[in-house]
Sequence to fold (754 residues):
Amino acid sequence: MDIKALVLRMTLEEKASLCSGGDFWHTKAVERLGIPATMVSDGPHGLRKQDQQADHLGVNESIKAVCFPAACATAASFDRDLLARMGQAIGDSCQHEGVSVVLGPAVNIKRSPLCGRNFEYFSEDPYLTGKLAAAYIRGVQSRNVGVSIKHFAANNQEHRRMSSSSDVDERTLREIYFPGFEIPVKEARPWTVMCSYNRLNGVFASENPWLLTDVLRKEWGFDGYVMSDWGAVSDRVAGVAAGLDLEMPASGGVNDRKLVAAVREGRLEESKLDEACERILSIVYRFTESARPDTPWDMEAQHLLSAQIAEECMVLLKNGDGLLPLDKSDAVAFIGEFAERPRYQGGGSSHINSFKTTGALEAARGLNVTYARGYDAAADSADDALIAEAVAAAKAARVAVVFAGLPDSYESEGYDRRHMRLPECQNRLIDAVAGANANTVVVLHNGSPVQMPWIGRVKAVLEAYLGGQAVGLATVRVLFGDANPCGHLPETFPKKLSDNPSYLFYGGEPRGTEYREGVFVGYRYYDKKEMDVLFPFGHGLSYTRFEFSNLRLSADAIRDTDTLAATVTVKNVGPRPGKVAVQLYVGRGEGGDVIRPLRELKGFEKVALDSGEARDVVFTLDKRAFATWNTDMRDWCVESGDYTVEAGASSRDLPVSAAVRVEGTVHPPRHYDMNSIFMDIMADPRGREALEPLMAKIGAMLAPEEEGSSASEAITSDMSMAMMQYMPLRGIVSFGGGGLPDGFLDELLEKING
Ligand code: BGC
Fold:
């Protein structure tokens, strides 16, 4: 299809109208020109295709589909291949249903445990988020179905979500909130991007030219279309000018008419509309020209796939006395409503109408398992009769497994959590059961961290996250040892909410929310503050054990234009086959001017090893692994110095490390004036060259009275050194006691500046 020629044939009205949805879920058709409508649907962990009664909050029913684990869970897999396989399956279902674009993945950073949509998001870490999202996108798009990576950008709370401004400095955006988009845009080329509801530094994302054009297209090379989140458009004309191509769902023609008027009155260039139409149409035809409605959609097979995926995502947080795995002949009590009816997905636009669900109780049929309901999932306060029944069941069994987690009302799109606690009835139940049976295990279903006041009283904890409709199958296989747990936490579990770095500012004030913790999000903060946490980022146990050794680098010194290979040997030294997410972190070591985290994830690889097997895992580090965003240069910049590379199985279990010296090749342009201080000028080779010959003289001019005077006794050498270093150039005049020739300082400055 010659898209440019097609757009040339469109009238102004047709162009304006193509730039908004035909209905809730379709792009517009233009019958005169034979342009077809295409369908988009949520997303992301399954297909939410609505036939009638459309809504964007998952209120009305959609067609029956398969609910895969949500991103909170799949992120815990640390497994790119797994995300790609899930993407392929979802892509197949889209082809089968004629859906051109699936609305996801959602890659916003989990800034606080409170965000209502955390369950849809991957991680507190941008690198993990970006790499896993890219893998998912490659999977979906391998089926010639597009994705809409969302919500661009800095949409990290639900509170006041359609009006609040996320006020974030550029370095923090570049290092924390952008890479989840940047990596997939560059590596997986998503067909579309969805802009977020919020404002970014005061400007709505839907009309932000810096965001949608300068960064997204010009810097990162995005070439698909940008659509609005549902109802995110404020000023449609400003939006088109900024690079927002498609307004969703539709404005009933109101905004289309505004676009026509703006072009007629010379307030909007028609070429901007042409561009938007070209981008929309190129994706419309990319889908329709090779649509494959005959693609089979085997839901039963996908149900099993979803169980396999869930299995790879479960994180064994604690396993005292090696209580898990359980023996199949063990007398086990399953306790808690979630054993029967698991919470396996979150509420809102991602809500899938599962064609079936398998809970743990059903999956354990045939085993020696009893059941007590324990609590009412819809209630907060405890029911004594239910607890008494649970205690009796726990006493009669060798092992008690409590299924706990957040009920729907605690965690959903549309609003944030108010605290980090489980419902009171569940905490009380766990306490009571742990008192009745020393072998108590807790299985958790939640989309982000919860406090665990009972952690010291239970032997084992398995974090199952929101594991999709087949989560029960996976849980039982892990509990009874048919599968070896291999998930790792994609986020830190703090001990309490107030430990979280965004705690003081999260949610913000009516006018906006300031991201004052800057780049210190998640483990970047807890590590620097040397804080105890409940479970660290990257943590995850196994039924086997892994040993790390021999971390070697391809060089001990590089320039930032080189790449560095880091190789580490990992060995399964335990009794059974298993998988581990090998993690690689980079940090700056001592010194340096840039304030930065101690370590940051820069590589990960999920490795499967038989008992006794060892393997070398190789990571390649490039400039970005060492760089920070330099606000003066507005570019990535590596500070020359020593860097530490560490590897292991969690951010706080890094048994091997190595050092490398990295020389930065790009330096911020320097300009000095009378207020520049000696320390900074001397750190610059050109400045040092100009100043050095004069230093003895200047030092004497600035030195205190003669030796032995009371003034000089009060001054330590550290102090006089500091006085010198922090002295501005103009200090020569103030403290030099006069006698400087006219023009001396101006000449000196000229020399220093070259
Ligand atoms: C959500 C999006 C979703 C859209 C369509 C919005 O409310 O923020 O994530 O894709 O609705 O359902």
The chain has 25 helices and 25 strands.
